[in-house]
Amino acid sequence: MDRRFLVLRTRMDINGTIAAVFGGASGIGLKTIVELLNRNAKGVTIFDLPSPAVEDAVAKLQSQFDKNRVIFIPCDVTVQDQVNDGFKKMIATFGSVDIVINSAGVADDTKIDLMININLGGVIHTSVAAMQNMGKHNGHKGGALLNIASVAGLVPVPFIPTYTASKYGIVGFNSAIQKNFGKTGVRVLTICPGLTNTSLAMKLMSKQKLDFVDYENVFTHADQVIWQETDIVAKTIVDLFERGENGAICVVQNSEPPYLVDPPKIHDLPRRPF
Fold this sequence. Notes:
Blueprint: E1 18-22, H1 27-38, E2 43-48, H2 52-64, E3 70-74, H3 80-94, E4 99-102, H4 112-134, E5 143-148, H5 161-177, H6 181-184, E6 186-193, H7 199-204, H8 215-218, H9 230-243, E7 249-252, E8 259-261
């Protein structure tokens, strides 16, 4: 992999920006919101399914920062109409949107439809709406869209094949839509975290009862895995908004400095006789 590190050119000043974060009430999404607000984002809208835990997270953010800078809009990312309506409500409050982040996700390979509908379908729903509400082609000023994939979207992970498929889908989808930057003015960014200390990652490392998976082998070296904290990923995400070029795919794992990789091109693939 090409280990180019983030360039230093500034592409966005977070100060005064308006952000939408889907799945923002926990894990990486929540820490990213804190990072955005600490860098003086003007306002953040959290889109998530309502629950006591979500309400508690929103209340803490409003108390820590300012209730006028953080709002919550209930939203199911698998339903395009809810996503579209959510953007309308957000823009009615803040006037515009500059940044969209999709951190919504689930991790249970035994629930195939749920995984694909949220991890991939939800990303597509929110990305389409982001283009409609930020794109220059639609009368807006442009902006930046970041979807959270995984290192499992670059290198297959044998004990979580459906999760792997959903994350490969994000990398492919982002690599395709970023080609429209000239028309939309919306930078498309992808981050691929390694194992990060979240409840979702903990579920990934549990045995999920797919009877064809050789769990004995894949978990042999589980105790050697290097976990990283959500703060590291959150900081990298906001750095990407500030400095990442359109189409950037960034890997952050093992608590090491983040680096950029390029998606494979057909003419670069190794060939061998069929």
